[in-house]
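Here is one chain, start to finish.
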Amino acid sequence: METTTPLIMETSSERNFATFTHLSTLTQYFIPFGNYIFPILLWSSKKDKSEFVDHHGKQALNFQLSLLLYTLILALIAIPIFVFVIFKNIPMDVVINDNDFTMNNFNLSDNIGILSVGVLAILIFGMLKVVEFFLIIYASIKASNGELYKYPLTIPFIK
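Its structure:
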């Protein structure tokens, strides 16, 4: 659940720093692991000087770590399902004799239930990424307005 409360003594510099801490997680689209590296750098440089920046830095990092955990769980569901279905449908004589494999060897109707679970995991992952983008923007706006913000569905790894 979202909690927003105004903080009493934050400066515009602190608000800007907290805002950039949230926005720095968007570097994941350009730099691998940028969503962890840049928020850690920004947060650790000011966490002892400002409670406001400390709060927002922890929130940004906890949200990114929670999303990483959710992504790993979804991958642990989807990947084995697709690997199982693919290997179940490849005849061993094709593999042993190095014959060409054709798509007519696939029997998807026997695996539709388990494939639905795999596809659902991929769809949930996609929805998570879209929701993540908008929540980062929303948290940035809250920080720039001088309000405390707590991301929903976040595990507090850093307290």
